[in-house]
Amino acid sequence: MQNLLNEVVEEVVKRVKREAFIEVEASGRHVHLSEKEVESLFGKGYTLTKLRDLSQPGQYACKERVTISGPKGSIKNVIVLGPCRKETQVEVSLTDSSSLGLKAPIKQSGDLNETLGIKISTEHGEVILDKGLMIAKRHIHITPQDATKFDVCDNEIVQVKVFGCRPLIFDDVVVRVNENFKTNMHIDYDEANACGYTKESIAKIIKK
Amino acid sequence: MQNLLNEVVEEVVKRVKREAFIEVEASGRHVHLSEKEVESLFGKGYTLTKLRDLSQPGQYACKERVTISGPKGSIKNVIVLGPCRKETQVEVSLTDSSSLGLKAPIKQSGDLNETLGIKISTEHGEVILDKGLMIAKRHIHITPQDATKFDVCDNEIVQVKVFGCRPLIFDDVVVRVNENFKTNMHIDYDEANACGYTKESIAKIIKK
């Protein structure tokens, strides 16, 4: 009886959360590679090896790892995400960018304007890019159904309150609506640490 | 004439800022040592050497550096702040705490309850503490005059909006009023990176 009660309570809490809040995910540093760069770094005809699916449908973590290098230092063991993209893009935190000795701009994923050059290497090869390094701008992926529910539209700027041991309200959060998305907010590890992120963290959209 | 105009404009802007906003300072990892620990780490009768004053009156950075170590790693070259305190206290960011392999609690400076044990060492000696490691809770130092101006009181919890390239509103910010303080907000480097902190960053207190 007690077990049943717990299960019911848990399910109700889960559904209420889903109605009023969105999930938060912290993204670690990662690299999206073009097919050309995959061949330069891993060999001719090489294809990426899927390790596990990510929350966004069609996106996956690969077993391949690379080293990224700037004028002040290198970061080893950076994960490659698949599938391949048209252009190679390296996403790091501001902490990482400082340790590389670079002042990477804060950009929306996919917008490589004004991003910085960076060296990517493996034991098989290296590429020196003239652009691609960025700090990803925090954002919300949202389905059209959830966009309607939360009354937001594509490219709208909202505030998002993250609850937890270090609560804060992220300002200037861009909303991206797409029917292929799963609804959640993406922040980097600087932001995750600043808000005391855990896997249970939830967030509330605040209309400006 | 143009120079005079610029100077006047700059001064007016500075004064307006001072009226409506507070300054923000990012605190790096640091150690406050008791006299006993100073002797254990640097030798009998040793006294700390002041390098430069900090913004809070009476507080200073010392030339002494220590290494702090946890189960997963060490951080070298951690600055010692003076003067000595009754109890040794080690303040790190959540990023640092993870790299040490420890889950340090977020605490108000001076409150060592539930803080973690940590090893501190130099080339002259080492101490193994059973408490003292914390992540400092973000806070505002404020003079009684400014507290009146901003309508806040000691231990009040407020929100603080930080302006800049990555604007956000820190929630749950504790106000500490003391006539010996200089008015400014203290955050750590995770929080600094999350809000795109620069030395020009300013913040506005929002009453809850």
TrEMBL record, chains A, B:
Cofactor(s) needed for function: Zn(2+)
Keywords: Acyltransferase, Metal-binding, Transferase, Zinc
Catalytic EC class: transferase
Catalytic activities: propanoyl-CoA + phosphate = propanoyl phosphate + CoA
Enzyme Commission designation: 2.3.1.222
Pfam families named in the record: PTAC
Pathway: Polyol metabolism; 1,2-propanediol degradation
Protein family (similarity comment): Belongs to the PduL family.
Function according to Swiss-Prot or TrEMBL: Involved in 1,2-propanediol (1,2-PD) degradation by catalyzing the conversion of propanoyl-CoA to propanoyl-phosphate.
Name of protein: Phosphate propanoyltransferase
Species this protein is from: Romboutsia sedimentorum
Phylogenetic placement of the source organism: Bacteria, Bacillati, Bacillota, Clostridia, Peptostreptococcales
Gene: eutD
